[in-house]
Design a protein that fits this description.
Blueprint: H1 6-35, H2 39-62, H3 83-111, H4 115-143, E1 153-155, E2 162-164, E3 182-183
Antiparallel strand pairs: 1-2, 1-3
The protein binds fe (ii) ion (3 copies).
Length: 184
């Protein structure tokens, strides 16, 4: 079932645009972190870049019946600085999604009875909360000139759930099996 209502469709397109830009931005910021000698912060960016790809793809799929050309307006953070500055950009972007964008989009999808969009927005909202916390932790450590300590960053390919160094038997957000997680 694809999206039916115009406002939820607009929100899906905007969220698709925002997630797509976050995906690319985190790849660039991850490379910058590696260049500064922070390979694990680089890994965190790379893994979360993949989570944003999962979100973009979920939103795109919900729009499958809206076949047309659109100009998409979507918020994004711009700028290439050092890793402390880039992490601040990442924190700002994630908090915008957690505190404003996804709660509003989610309530709209619920109000309009858009079950697929509701699911897609819910998955993204839950992952962005985790991303904001992880980027805050990374920034605190980077400010002291150190890299994060971690072995792996693991991403659920269904919803983008993000967890460091251990995978639950089932994704706490979407229920996907442990074996499906993608490890960075
Ligand atoms: Fe996302
Ligand atoms: Fe995120
Ligand atoms: Fe999941």
């Amino acid at each position: 079932m694809s999206v039916q209502n115009a406002m939820t469709a607009d929100f899906l397109r905007s969220a698709y645009g925002g997630e797509s830009m976050a995906h690319m931005r985190y790849i660039a910021w991850g490379k910058q972190a590696e260049n500064e000698g922070f390979p694990n912060i680089g890994k965190l960016f790379k893994a979360i870049s993949y989570a944003e790809q999962v979100h973009a793809t979920n939103h795109f799929k919900e729009l499958n019946a809206q076949v047309s050309d659109y100009t998409v307006a979507a918020g994004a953070v711009f700028g290439m600085g050092n890793s402390v500055a880039n992490l601040q950009g990442a924190i700002n972007g994630e908090l915008h999604e957690v505190e404003q964008m996804y709660p509003v989009y989610l309530q709209t999808a619920k109000f309009q009875g858009e079950k697929g969009a509701e699911r897609s927005f819910h998955f993204a909202l839950e992952a962005e909360k985790l991303h904001a916390g992880l980027f805050k932790k990374a920034q605190e450590i980077a400010k002291e000139g150190n890299d994060l300590e971690l072995k792996s960053v693991n991403i659920c390919p269904i919803c983008g759930h993000t967890i460091i160094d251990g995978i639950p038997d089932h994704c706490p957000v979407c229920g996907a099996k442990k074996e499906l997680y993608v490890t960075f």
